Amino acid sequence: MKKFQFKYANILSWIIVIGSVFMGYIVYSNLDKGFIFNDEAFYLFHYRNHDSLPTIDSTNFYRIFKFLYTENIYQFRVTTYILLNTSTFLLYFFASKYYQLKVNPFLISFLGITINFLSWGISNIVLHQYIGNTILINLSLTLLLAYLIYNKLIPLIISGFCLGILLFNGIPHTIVIIPITAFLLFNFWKKDKRVLFYMIAGGLLGIAFYFMFIESFSKFISQFEWIKYYKQFHTKQHPKRFYILWILKVTGFIFVPTLLLIGYLHKFSKNKIQHTNYILIFLGFVFVISFLFYSSVYINYVLLAVLIYRYFLEDVSIEKKTMLVVFSLIPFGLSFGSGAYFEVRGTLYNIYLYLALAIIILSIYKVKVYAVLVVLFVYQYLVFPNILTERGWKNFIFTEQTEKIQISGYNLFIDKERKKDIEDLRPYLQNQEDVIYSHNQLMGYLYILKAKPPIYYYFTLKDYVKFILEKEHKKPDNCIYLESNDYPFQSKEIVPLQFVEHPEKFKIVKAGRFTLYLPSNYQKK
């Protein structure tokens, strides 16, 4: 029976491999097309100019990964995806070996790559804090699994080192360490304290490495000062109300239903395995409908929680059981504090959800259940090319990115309208400093033309911009102001000729879809 399971699970997994290669071809052949003019430009600005401009972001991805940065956006995107997919492949590979799944570890590892392509697509593929966190967590968990498989302590030092670096990559997301710490304490506090010692030693080594080679301690502390300033002026971003709602939604839609279901099964069911399977059949049906028509991350995690309960009824080690709990909780830690609700940000971390699903399905169910999961992904492979013709939040269509431009000497393809925009703005913005833009959708033009704002900002806030200019000993009358027909300055925030002291000295220039307000000391560069 086991040989039968292994044989057909491998055959099904080859479909995953082929599908991953197909998706990979679509992704990698289009990474030189398109540019997200707000988010992607915002992240790339941090890499390019972080030493010369202050930052308000509570993250340090651009310091940690700056050794990988290149002005070649295509190459940087490729590097980002290679690191993300490699770390995910290793996590799935070692998890498969640790749980002794009835499938070839190499083949099942491509499931993680499939999930990455589905989660990230071809948009915003730069090494920002979300992808950086995923890579660091993947490596840390992989090395922890290596210890559990081979009982060698050295991997624990590197695992802890990755977690030590992660503390600085996305500061609000560091709560992701809590489930990993709880796993170690629960399983090894009495059993083998050396595990804790090696992990802590690795973590301290990572912290020391950060302050010795990446950023000084004093600069790290000053970063919090800038964050404090920012929050004083932008109280509507990430307010306490947002975090309360975030927690209430996750609790109400995931934890409460899960506790009710598992509580009922644990207390009242006399045949727990059978009754749990009945509930799982219903949840599985809802999951399939959700997967095909209207994806709901909340349904997915209720299903996973009940599956984990079902796995706990099996006669396996407590370490394997609690590691599944770790996988299920990591997405909550990584998405918390990201400025978006869990249904938006949580889907980026589906690799942990599907890793746990695959482990449970291949461990305790017949291969036909795994076949259902594979069929669902076959559907995703068939519709994946639609990504090339969808506009989405990135605000461009890949098939329209036909015009070649150069950024720092490297080719990138964008649409005709934006290429014209760049040529309209080039005579006025090329290599200019202190450019105040009306909207974050204009940041990409500054990045392409190597222009700089006085500080990176995502929202154009009058009082905040004025405060920053004063703190940096700059004057509003010496700045260039940029707006477009689509994104004009908002009257409640900055009106350029009212924001400055001597509006009569400014020259107003029309350049295609844009309006520029040039100061009296303006000189072309």
Q: Overview of this structure, please?
A:
This is Glucosyl transferase GtrII. The chain crosses the membrane at residues 12-28, 74-94, 106-123, 129-150, 162-189, 195-221, 242-266, 278-311, 323-342, 348-365, 370-388. Keywords: Membrane, Transmembrane, Transmembrane helix. The N and C termini lie far apart (74 Å). Helix 14 packs parallel to helix 17. Helices cover 62% and strands 5% of the residues. The mean pLDDT is 92. The protein has helices spanning 2-28, 39-49, 61-64, 73-99, 105-108, 110-120, 129-150, 154-169, 177-188, 193-214, 217-233, 240-268, 272-292, 297-312, 318-335, 342-345, 350-364, 367-383, 416-429, 443-448, 462-471, 496-499, and strands at residues 403-407, 410-414, 435-437, 480-484, 507-511, 514-518. It is built from 22 helices and 6 strands. Strand 5 (507-511) and strand 6 (514-518) form a beta hairpin. The chain is globular and about 85 Å long. Strands 3-4-6-5 form a 4-stranded mixed β-sheet, covered by helices on one side. Strands 1-2 form a two-stranded antiparallel sheet. It is mainly α and 525 residues long.
